[in-house]
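Hey,
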Amino acid sequence: MTFPIVVGFSFLFVRLAVNYTDGYYIHYATYMASRTYMSLDTEKTEESAGDSDAFKAASRVFRRYKPEILINGFDGELKENNIDSVSVKVFTGVWVEYTRTFAMGFLGGTEKVKLRSESFLGREPIRTEVWKAICTNISRVTQGTCQKHTTLDDNGG
């Protein structure tokens, strides 16, 4: 009488272990895509163009891990929180939302559970954005322009 219960729990734990493994795999792929998103600088003149290129590169990195092949029934896709869509800069990054069946058949339910893997490492400012900020600050101090190489001299005093 206890044999079917023990076998049922064994299958349930195996399914839970597979779900955990799939979750760790998706989180690693999301993390690697987020690292690419954070650090890519294509030297564009507009900040939003750099973000777009960074997201395309991050999507390529995520797809390189082939989650739709290695995880049966994977239905998620990489999405971004760019600097224009969030109010707090620390929530800039990429995330994936996907659904999984929590357990097997009648053991644990048959409804799909919505899962999310987030990796908000931030987004480094591109060189053009940094140059504009430095030029603005130098112009305020020197009353000049940034048409030529301009630096501030700090004599340590």
